């Protein structure tokens, strides 16, 4: 990991004489893709935050892909495209956010691409700051930090702690942060060279946690990533989004918890193949993802006929009981929770619910 003294100068733009004197290339074209589904109340805020970027408008392409919405999302996308020369709207039958992102990639004409979720919004300096760092340090990928905002407007605790200044991180070090749950896997906080997306490296359809699955493979083709300290990406935490639990439905179990376990197993096999020195870190990642699964699955779904729960989660953890105890990367807290849950997870969860009055 390398640290840099670079600090984003708000008083400068890509067209400043200082940069021209230093021989910087003219701004590259950037395509930002927004998958949109039934988001009529928030789409305009999202798009306007990109329209108002300090990056040159003629070098910024904003692509909205309406994923077969049943509300007025599609009409709003068309209206925004009519109002702004650099906004483009496309429509598809409902196929999920990954399909919408891949559709957007097929229309993107920029040499760099980014993604913004339609319920989120970004700081006006985000694109310029990211492209400035990409230009400055000749990296194919750069990332800002994010904050999370609850539905009532309050700021939630940081999921990823921002660095104190801009840093350059080697690809292997970045993979390690993902496996240690200290890195950010989201493609929404980053801008990426478009050529890194290939026929084999696109967003997988029909699953969640897709960013992690794609990023951990794409990093194999990247030397280093720049990370800026600024929280320029603002996540709007909606309880009804497809990766978060619906508070009104106690038996609802978001499919993302199954996908994170499957992707952890995929990551472990990738580490065994390409980075044997990180196998124990990847094993730790799989244990923690399964712990997360056990802590969130409704008790009503912890049944013997739930094959994934019984075999892929509980059975897997019991099989690796000794490995869990010996793993140097697992925290004492996680080891304690796993030790308590492994013998009888349903009974433990039921007892805990009784005590808490749930």
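Q: What amino acid sequence fits the structure above?
A:
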């Amino acid at each position: 990991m390398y640290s840099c003294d670079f600090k984003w100068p708000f008083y400068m733009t890509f067209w400043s004489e200082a940069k021209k004197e230093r021989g910087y290339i003219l701004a590259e074209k950037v395509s930002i893709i927004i998958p949109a589904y039934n988001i009529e109340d928030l789409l305009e805020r999202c798009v306007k935050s990109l329209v108002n970027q300090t990056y040159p408008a003629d070098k910024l392409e904003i692509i909205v892909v309406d994923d077969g919405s049943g509300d007025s999302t599609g009409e709003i996308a068309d209206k925004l495209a009519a109002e702004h020369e650099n906004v483009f709207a496309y429509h598809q039958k409902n196929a999920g956010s990954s399909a919408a992102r891949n559709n957007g990639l097929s229309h993107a004409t920029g040499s760099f691409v980014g993604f913004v979720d339609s319920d989120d919004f970004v700081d006006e300096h985000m694109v310029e700051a990211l492209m400035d760092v990409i230009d400055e340090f000749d990296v194919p990928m750069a990332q800002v930090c994010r904050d999370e905002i609850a539905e009532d407007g309050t700021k939630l605790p940081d999921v990823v702690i921002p660095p104190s200044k801009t840093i350059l991180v080697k690809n292997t070090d970045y993979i390690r942060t993902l496996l240690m749950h200290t890195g950010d896997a989201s493609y929404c906080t980053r801008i990426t060279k478009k050529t890194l997306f290939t026929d084999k490296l696109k967003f997988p359809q029909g699953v969640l946690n897709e960013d992690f699955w794609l990023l951990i493979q794409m990093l194999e083709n990247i030397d280093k990533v720049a990370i800026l300290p600024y929280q320029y990406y603002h996540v709007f935490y909606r309880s009804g989004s497809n990766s978060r639990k619906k508070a009104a439905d106690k038996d609802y179990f978001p499919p993302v918890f199954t996908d994170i376990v499957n992707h952890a197993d995929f990551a472990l096999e990738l580490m065994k193949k390409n980075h044997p020195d990180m196998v124990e870190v990847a094993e730790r990642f799989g244990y923690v993802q399964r712990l997360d699964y056990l802590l969130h699955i409704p008790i009503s779904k912890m049944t013997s006929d739930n094959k994934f729960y019984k075999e892929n989660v509980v059975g897997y953890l019991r099989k690796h009981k000794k490995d869990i105890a010996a793993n140097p990367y697992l925290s004492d807290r996680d080891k304690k929770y796993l030790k308590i849950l492994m013998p009888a997870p349903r009974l433990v969860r039921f007892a805990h619910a009784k005590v808490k009055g749930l």
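Q: And what stands out in the fold?
A: Confidence is low (pLDDT under 50) at residues 2-25.
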